[in-house]
Amino acid sequence: MKKFWGIIPRNIIKNKGRVFIMGISIVLAISLIVSLSIVGDSIIKNKSEEYINLGGGTYDIFTESNDYSLINEFAEENFLKTSIIETSVGICKVPNSKFEIEINGYNNIIEDKILNFKLLAGRYPEKNNEIALEEWILNELPVKYNLGDKIKLEYISQYFDENESYDLKQEDEFLLVGVLNYKNYESPLKNRAKAYVTSQFALNKEIYGKVNHRIYGVLKEKYSLNEVFLIISYINDYGSLSIGKNDAKIDGENNMNFLNSILSLLFLVIGTVSGIVIYNISNIMVTERTKEFGIFRALGASPKMIKSLVILEGVLVGVIFIPIAMVVGSILTKTFIKSQYINLGNLAELVYIPPKGIYFSLMIGFLTLIIGNYFPARRASKVSPMQAIFSNNNLNLKGHMLKVGLETKSSVRKKMSFSTNMAYLNLDRNKKRFITTVISLNIIVIMFFGVHYLINCLDPLSNYKEKFGGDFIIKSTSNINGYEMKNDKIEELQKIQGVKNIYKCKELNCSIEVPEKSITNTGFKYLRSIGELKEEESSTSDIKRYLFSSRILGYDNEEIDKLIPSVQEGDKTLDSVKNRPTVAIVQNINNKEYTDIKIGDTLNMIVPKYDKNGREEGVKNVPFTVVAILNSNSLGMSIGDVPIVPVVSNYSCENYLNLNGYIGCKIKCEEGFNFNDIKTKLNDSISDSKELTLKSYVEEYNKAKENNKDFAIMLYGFLTVIGIISIINLVNVMNMSVILRKKEISILRAIGLNNREVTIMIMSEGVFYGLASSILGSIFGTILTVIIYFNGRERISSLLTWSMPFNTIVNSIIIVTLICVSSAIIPIKSLFRKSIVESIKGIE
């Protein structure tokens, strides 16, 4: 018995050529799974880091109050997994600059990126009068400080006493113990650096009065945001609190859920392709050994021993090649993709594979090897030893099947030549192999349709200059009063030689009160879900207010004129928007039908109110009449998830909303301008403010072009690799078809079928494979583009369009059929190397 099982390693060594071919197929298939897992893991990590940087941390909700006991009570709520309390100390202005330092105390060391702090050097403060500062602000201070130095800071603290507030100037000396980095791209105060002190130091300052406290909380997994908002709304103590949510995290997690769904679908697709490849090559290698199994049976081996022998050989081949495939796939993928999470100099990191990739690789690899080896071995073990020895490895083709297959009643089949009918008959007798191969090729065609459709629809270079709006754009990250671009800055930019026109825009986050009659049932559900509508309020209250969070956009008259083609209803010229308290609106963004606002409706803009010193002191209602409704694609910019966007003139912003500053401007230059010269002057003009960023059309276009190229190369490259694997699978299938039918084909040659007719028969099989795969693939691929269109308008881009992909269908049919015919030609040469007599005798 031991000697019999010793055949396994000897067989592998003896047939190393065959095993090597099988190993190559395994390496290609498993490498593809590993590659997808690494690319997917990198994308998810990048997206996760992106939303953390965008929102300033992983917290779910936040609120603030000058009542510390209330904030502390909130921190103990059962729905919070963990929280951070931030206590305000004061704002320090850096001398001779626009930069500021915001000093806050924190009740524990920030971990798990609840707030997006990263310690770069030193440590977090542990004692009173110790401080950690953001790295960038150290370069802006008048004196160069290092860790261990003492820093004297003068700062203004805001205190609250009943309904009054007052400022107090203070000074303290701190010991610099840490240097940190803090990222919050949505923060409007880019000129303001964070300073970290102990919570106790901050609380000690309350001897002068109450200070502001803010809490950032992470919810327990079993609680949703909607549930938490509902719980809070029924706790009377929290009636004075305004609860905010981390929109960046919500959007990020929604996007990641969508990405995970796509990746899971890709794993299913690629796992199926890889499994079919491994299954077919295993099937081929085992079927070729039918004679060998007959000899084993003749020498006394039982059917069970034959099956066990074959399965163990397959497992051993898998043990050898699957780990190799995983390492090769990891190294190749990480060599070609760009990611901040991959260090090519670290060998352990270079060969690291995400757990999901390892799991799928092992499962698909060994499962398909076992199945691919078991079934042909099972068939071979059931036949008699003599039948197996004289079968020429072909157990499927029975002589009595030929007559029935050729005597067809089909009018199409009757018009076919004998060679073509024989090709059809062979495929009919090997339905399983035909179906699995067609499925493999189908998947490639379907994926090609999806990839081609997405790349064509999401081309960022289409009308890029028009979308960009100018040669340069200066954007402010702050729309807070006192921090936006001012008229003096615009005048300074206008004086730069080469600048022709500057188009200014304003922006203001606000709430919009919408009439009850203009809200849909979906809109009421939305308001209820975000805590803006309670059951008792909607049914019993005499005064009902329906508030939607939004963002007002203010444009120059020239920019308003550009919106005229997008007017769906109302004032087609938009002249009434330019100098009166009227508004053009975009509603039901991203196909979310929350409102049905009509021309003539009045919307109340709830905006901040400022005192004579420019300090915010509550809110005021400003009524605007709707005079136009715009197409949702009209703004040509990302406007987030807000349900309504009002567009007004800059005149209205200044005269009715007290919004004097600008969120940004578009700059058009004179013909033949010197790009580098103007860019340098613009950068010099805004260098004193971190809130202002400069983007140029040329650089952004080149960046978009490069990103688009990389995106297309990645998708088409991935598709090409899958295609190569499927073609290898197809060649193996065609080769197996010829090997298994050598005796039958030789008999056909002996009774008069010449080499040309044999070639036509084999090539006809390739044509059948090609037509079946491309036609079915085109049908399902077209259906996929329709699904992407309907789902993608909301999740990917509202600009998606759809039309029948006739060119893609024709190209797919031609290309796939040619590939299949070419694959069929490859094994034909081996048919004519031996004489007809040798082939009939089965001499190997």
TrEMBL record:
<comment type="similarity">
    <text>Belongs to the ABC-4 integral membrane protein family.</text>
</comment>
<dbReference type="GO" id="GO:0005886">
    <property type="term" value="C:plasma membrane"/>
</dbReference>
<protein>
    <submittedName>
        <fullName>FtsX-like permease family protein</fullName>
    </submittedName>
</protein>
<keyword id="KW-0812">Transmembrane</keyword>
<feature type="domain" description="ABC3 transporter permease C-terminal">
    <location>
        <begin position="265"/>
        <end position="385"/>
    </location>
</feature>
<keyword id="KW-1003">Cell membrane</keyword>
<feature type="transmembrane region" description="Helical">
    <location>
        <begin position="711"/>
        <end position="733"/>
    </location>
</feature>
<feature type="domain" description="ABC3 transporter permease C-terminal">
    <location>
        <begin position="718"/>
        <end position="836"/>
    </location>
</feature>
<dbReference type="GO" id="GO:0022857">
    <property type="term" value="F:transmembrane transporter activity"/>
</dbReference>
<dbReference type="InterPro" id="IPR003838">
    <property type="entry name" value="ABC3_permease_C"/>
</dbReference>
<dbReference type="InterPro" id="IPR050250">
    <property type="entry name" value="Macrolide_Exporter_MacB"/>
</dbReference>
<dbReference type="Pfam" id="PF02687">
    <property type="entry name" value="FtsX"/>
</dbReference>
<feature type="transmembrane region" description="Helical">
    <location>
        <begin position="766"/>
        <end position="789"/>
    </location>
</feature>
<feature type="transmembrane region" description="Helical">
    <location>
        <begin position="357"/>
        <end position="376"/>
    </location>
</feature>
<feature type="transmembrane region" description="Helical">
    <location>
        <begin position="809"/>
        <end position="832"/>
    </location>
</feature>
<keyword id="KW-0472">Membrane</keyword>
<keyword id="KW-1133">Transmembrane helix</keyword>
<feature type="transmembrane region" description="Helical">
    <location>
        <begin position="20"/>
        <end position="39"/>
    </location>
</feature>
<feature type="transmembrane region" description="Helical">
    <location>
        <begin position="309"/>
        <end position="337"/>
    </location>
</feature>
<feature type="transmembrane region" description="Helical">
    <location>
        <begin position="258"/>
        <end position="281"/>
    </location>
</feature>
<feature type="transmembrane region" description="Helical">
    <location>
        <begin position="434"/>
        <end position="455"/>
    </location>
</feature>
